Automatic annotation (TrEMBL):
The chain crosses the membrane at residues 33-51, 124-148, 160-180. This is Uncharacterized protein. Residues 59-114, 256-283, 314-355, 364-383 are annotated as: Disordered. Residues 341-351 have a biased composition (Low complexity). The keyword GTP-binding does not apply. It comes from Microdochium bolleyi. Keywords: Membrane, Transmembrane, Transmembrane helix. Residues 67-77, 104-114, 315-338 have a biased composition (Basic and acidic residues).
Length: 383
């Protein structure tokens, strides 16, 4: 696009400018000349980047010449196959198919490499224009400040300042040239001028009647490059975070069922021989079955004892009611002074001892029934 020799001038101008500007700043006791080294360094780096990319783009993408010569020599040394001597052409799915596939892969790799090594002037012309404009403005600013302070310099100091500003001036002119050239190419100024000129003259040739005026307006390279860059930009998609699952406290509280509902569910469940699972989530909130009052269920207690399940209830009531309240020994001593009520209690106790009674002892072991005999010897308790 542009002469590459000017980029080389921008790179080479930093070499003499470094000692001259540094010496000028030290002698004049001013940091302005030495400040010009900063934009000059960026100018040299940017120009070197452009030159390196252009050289890689112009380099051949195929194998080096030495390798091609070696391959040709190997092909000459190898004897021809009988099929090749007779002019036999193998099918596409054999050798030619492999060759075609390899050729396609080579072409695709060459295309990808050409796209990857495409000139930066063609891919990002706006960036190149902005960089050249910024570098030219920065170097020109340092030049103006140096020229304004050179009025009171002596002859030797003025000569040193002139030698130091020459590389800066050369680099500034190079970047201004590339900036103007990039602006003209980016906005398609020659094409637009030609299109406007065609609007003034007649659209058809007066001699042959051929249509000469272009119908469509020229494309703007800057707009086209911006559109291509937006189309080729990858969409950044952040990984979706997994949803946070919180426990449903309301459902957990409402899912508790009473013992009666559990018994009905156990009866309705088919007998499969497997152990029944507790459906209530609040099972751990209930007291154990052995702690509490209740009637004695001999069949259920015996089954639990054999299966190694829960033990029987701690407080057993044969009548199915609540257990009688606890009485201390002093209560019975106080009952002696109650008169007839106290005298009637031993008789009732003796009558209850004489009657036959079964005492059921329920626990981890099997039940044992102890019956009091009515024909026990006198003076001995029935149990």
């Amino acid at each position: 696009m542009a002469p590459q020799g000017l980029r080389v001038v921008a790179v080479a101008s930093f070499v003499p400018a470094f000692p001259l500007l540094l010496a000028h700043g030290i002698v004049s006791h001013s940091p302005v000349p030495a400040t010009g080294l900063v934009p000059l360094a960026f100018s040299a780096g940017f120009s070197l980047f452009i030159l390196r990319r252009r050289a890689r783009r112009q380099a051949p993408l195929s194998a080096p010449p030495g390798n091609e010569r070696d391959n040709e020599r190997d092909n000459e040394r190898q004897p021809l196959l009988p099929s090749e001597e007779a002019g036999f052409v193998p099918p596409e799915d054999d050798a030619d198919g492999v060759a075609i596939n390899s050729q396609d892969n080579h072409d695709g790799q060459r295309t990808s490499n050409s796209r990857r090594l495409e000139d930066i002037h063609d891919r990002l012309p706006i960036i190149v224009f902005l960089a050249d404009t910024a570098l030219a403005a920065a170097i020109l600013t340092v030049l103006v400040y140096t020229w304004l302070r050179s009025g009171g310099f002596s002859g030797q100091l003025a000569m040193l300042a002139a030698y130091g500003t020459i590389p800066m001036l050369a680099s500034t002119l190079v970047h201004i040239y590339f900036a103007v050239r990039g602006l003209s190419h980016g906005l398609a100024l020659p094409e637009l001028t030609r299109w406007v000129a065609w609007q003034v003259v007649p659209a058809d040739c007066p001699g042959c009647g051929h249509h000469l005026r272009p119908e469509a307006t020229p494309d703007i390279p800057w707009f086209q490059s911006a559109r291509n860059a937006a189309a080729s930009t990858r969409e950044w998609r952040f990984p979706a975070l997994p949803p946070l699952a919180f426990p449903d406290v309301r459902a957990w509280v409402r899912s508790g069922v009473d013992d009666g509902d559990e018994d009905e569910d156990a009866e309705a469940r088919p007998a499969t021989g497997a152990e029944s699972t507790t459906t209530s989530r609040r099972q751990w909130l209930r007291p154990p079955a052995w702690l509490g009052y209740g009637a004695v269920d001999e069949t259920a207690d015996e089954q639990r004892s054999e299966d190694g399940g829960e033990t029987a209830r701690l407080f057993v009531d044969h009548d199915g009611g609540t257990a009688p309240p606890y009485h201390d020994r002093d209560d019975f001593d106080n009952d002696r002074y109650d008169g007839g009520a106290a005298a009637a209690r031993p008789a009732q106790a003796l009558a209850s001892n004489n009657s036959a009674e079964e005492v059921v002892v329920v626990g981890k072991k099997k039940q044992r029934k102890i019956s009091s005999s009515s024909d026990a010897p006198d003076g001995e308790p029935g149990w």
